[in-house]
Amino acid sequence: MSTALITGGAGFIGSNLADAVLADGRACHIVDDLSNGKRIRLPADAEFHELDIRRADDLVAVATAAKPSVIFHLAAQADVRRALDDPAFDADVNVIGTINVLEAARAVGARVVFASTGGAGYGEYPELPVPSPETSATRPLSHYGMSKMAGEGYCGLYGRLYGVPATVLRLGNVYGPRQDPHGEAGVVAIFCGKVLDGDRPRIFGDGLQTRDYVYVGDVVRAFLAAEAGEPGETVNIGTGTEITVLDLLEGLGYEGDPEFADARPGELQRSALDNAKAAALYGWRPETSLRDGLRLTYESVIAARQAPDARPPGAFATT
Ligand code: NAD
What we know:
The chain is an alpha/beta fold. It has a domain at 3-175 and 213-239 and 273-288: NAD(P)-binding Rossmann-like Domain (Rossmann fold), CATH 3.40.50. The protein has eleven helices and 13 strands. It has helices at residues 12-23, 56-66, 80-85, 87-108, 119-122, 143-162, 186-197, 216-228, 245-251, 276-282, 290-306; strands at residues 4-7, 28-32, 47-50, 70-73, 111-117, 166-171, 173-175, 202-204, 210-211, 213-215, 234-237, 243-244, 259-261. The chain has a seven-stranded parallel sheet, with helices on both faces. The longest helix has 22 residues, at 87-108. The chain binds nicotinamide-adenine-dinucleotide. The site of nicotinamide-adenine-dinucleotide has 31 residues, from helix 1, strand 2, helix 4, strand 5 and strand 7. Nicotinamide-adenine-dinucleotide (NAD) is lined by residues 8, 10-14, 31-37, 52-54, 74-78, 93, 97, 115, 117, 171, 173-174, 183-185.
């Protein structure tokens, strides 16, 4: 069976993807610098390379030795606020790092599936339809969104220049087991912790801002479908449904009074992704309802607290 290399495989989505690859009986290499990833998330059966994707030559050396047929590129500086504080660092990891991954793919003849962003890429402007199709103009409102759009651009360039087969997945707000508070759907992890501790969750703004919350198990299926599909496409991976922050609390069974704080500047008011293209190309559809996904996430937070030294449970059976 073919070998997969996952950058960012010690992270939230990447470690779940690694479990699914291994469950298929395939070899799996993981590249991660552990800047946000955790060693405890790594599957025992994966080959781990502690490496910063900004080290171009070392990345090519790892890929040359591993001979992957696909590189799932998920390693990123994925914290929107950190990007605002240090835009050059964000671009270094997300743009230069992505170029290095594409160079490594080119060197070994691998295809690439790139984890991009939907909401942070499209931004928010009056003519933007919600849910947004892939044909919408991208007008990021954050450095993070901008660096991801640059990464998408380089995926296209490497296809045109060198024939590197690359697919871009624009993810919604991904939530589920192993997520941490810093990603685009970090609010779900934060709320799970608050509900468990009996604390009042804090809502920034009126709680009516919407996002497209998509379960990590469904997102992992999309990565595998994209690997098998025709390259050269840019595809939204979301539910197409707008979920408010207040809906999340209700879904978690919270019945108290949340605390309201001032809205944070630069936050989008509405975001959801049209997923018709993913359905047409891959037959992909989200299968996990918000209620089930939140329950699975909540249970995983409890399990991780009960056994802090064990590998935290993910969305897939592990080896
Ligand atoms: P994550 O932070 O859990 O995973 C990213 C991983 O990349 C971490 O393990 C981190 O240690 C690693 N990494 C960071 N910089 C690195 C570097 N220079 N070299 C090697 N490894 C490095 O984030 P996630 O939520 O799992 O996101 C995975 C990918 O999906 C990211 O590219 C992110 O931008 C994208 N994405 C996530 C969401 C979401 O809601 N979580 C939404 C849209 C897009």
